[in-house]
Amino acid sequence: MELDFYKKFSINIDLAVEAHDLLRGQTGREISGVIVDREKYENSSVTIVKIVEEQAEQLMGKPRGNYITIEAPSLRDNNRLAQQEVAEVLAKKLSSLFNLPENANILLVGLGNWNATPDALGPKVIEHSMVTRHLFKYAPEELGEGMRSVSAIAPGVLGITGIETAEIIKGIVEKIQPELVIVVDSLAAGSVDRIATTIQIADTGINPGSGIGNQRTGINLASMGVPVIAIGIPTVVHAAVIAQVTVEHFLEQLKANPLLNQIYQNLRPDFTNQVINQVLQPFAGNLMVTPKEIDSLISSTSKIVAGGISMALHPAVNFEDFNIYLN
Fold first, then answer.
1. For residue range 39-63, what is the model confidence (pLDDT) as tens digits?
2. 247 in a domain, yes or no?
3. Could you tell me the superkingdom of the organism this chain comes from (predicted)?
4. What CATH number does residue 145 fall under?
5. What b/e readout covers 242-265, taking b as 16+ CB neighbours within 10 angstroms?
6. What confidence tens digit (pLDDT) does each residue in 207-224 have?
7. Cβ 161 vs Cβ 168: under 8 Å
8. Which of 84, 192, 240, 285 is 20 to 30 Å from 102 by CA-CA measure?
């Protein structure tokens, strides 16, 4: 699939690894100013995309920084070993993006709408996270070494609160003055295979609602005044992307069949876009697709993300400790 298709349908590419692969596939060469490293684990793989130059920033459509993608298809199978590995890898990679003292103050933010399941990842992660800031003040005897002060909020969305999410977070940041903000949000993927199997960690912050085409106030170092790390999992795919892939496969079958090849040759170059436009016209091209089991996928992945964050922020906590906390 070409990058021009995403631009034509105004589809934002949330995952840096997908933006890189699309751009590299279109140009047929490595992208100058982008460094890519890969790691392999038993149940998962990690791709680290580093955007280091301004030109690459413009080509990728993403700010300079580090984008870490963890892929684990076995997460959909409710594989406990894979879940533990991914949580531990997430903790390790998240820790690599900050250097905080033990007495640091961290704010967790769960973006999204808790009334819409595909958009409820952020609030669900907050629900499962180890929050300790109040204990430092009211029950310090309950805390051991290797624990940090962590507070959390799920601020809702503009349509519920009437307030820009960034404004809410900025107010809290000014009040409690954290050294780091970690935001969690649902993302849109360019492939159904990535739903609930891919986690992206980025030290560049996030733009709320960007996955469904909204242009909103960013939550990043510039707007918050403190470093912001964003963590996201794809929960939806744009319907135009699924339609495009379907049509492409159909055209490949026409082209490969000698009896039908003439039909393929007679098709106009803009055939695909016209068909997709006609199908999606009632929704103005903004139709998003999510699997019917999204409830259970959000439930399981939110615990994995919360576990990884908790292990990264609280060095004394391991995966088993986190499971005891959940229960």
1. 999 999 999 999 999 999 988 989 9
2. no
3. Bacteria
4. 3.40.50.1450
5. bbbeebeeeeeeeeeeeeeeeebe
6. 654 444 445 678 999 999
7. yes
8. 84
